[in-house]
Amino acid sequence: MRLYHSPTSPYVRKVMVLLHETGQLGDVERITGSGNPVDPGTAPLEANPLGKVPALERADGPALYDSRVICRYLDDRAGAGLYPTGARLWDTLTVEATGDGILDAALLMVYEGRIRPEEMRFGPWVEGQWAKVDRALDALETRWIAHLEGSLDAGQIAVGCALGYLDFRHDARGWRVGRPRLAAWYAQFAARPSMQATVPV
Predict the structure, then answer these.
(1) Closest of 95, 103, 83, 88 to residue 169, by C-alpha
(2) What is the dihedral sign for C-alpha 90, 91, 92, 95?
(3) How far is residue 166 from each of residues 68, 97, 107, 122, measured CA to CA in Å?
(4) Where is the GST N-terminal domain (predicted)?
(5) For residues 83 and 95, what is the distance between their CA atoms, to the nearest angstrom?
(6) How far is Cα 71 from Cα 148, in angstroms, rounded to an integer?
(7) Among 28, 130, 155, 163, which is disulfide-ready with 96 (CB 3.0 to 4.6 Å)?
(8) DSSP assignment, residue 32?
(9) 26 and 54 assigned to the same domain
(10) Distances from the Cα of 135 to the Cα of 104, 179, 201, angstroms
(11) For residue 163, is it within any domain?
(12) How much of the chain, in percent, has pLDDT values that exceed 90?
């Protein structure tokens, strides 16, 4: 398999963490490819017409894209059970969607500052994106903390990578303030070898 990736992409990091956790890292060749909404750069357009990483080329079908799709495929391939069966699956998928939603909003904030000309930037829009992140973090601290503290699953991986991205790109926002249980959970999760091996630089 061939994985198109960018070493700083938090969505790619989700896939990389899952590869580490399921022992499949050696099954994947990594190819650098990245771009942004106004310049596709070296993004894998043939593999993913949306021009995003990660994209996973496989021998038994078309390339897969979107980190959630790739993670679920790789989990199924390994029989790892990171997407559980039964009632817990819906919680896992919702926690994963919460982590991805944090990433979506946090990345849009980065794009606003990096891509849009300064005279065209709209502060209230940026703060609106952070409000989404803030609400999602509160939900993780309260509604979903018991799930996070349970056995490893894809939802935890998504949230761990999202919190790592907040540290990487939005550290000044201080997401840990008022969220002691989430901060404690992340400190432990971030120490996993899979997370340590995929820290963006």
Answers:
(1) 103
(2) positive
(3) 19, 16, 9, 20
(4) 1-82
(5) 11
(6) 18
(7) 155
(8) E
(9) yes
(10) 14, 12, 27
(11) yes
(12) 84
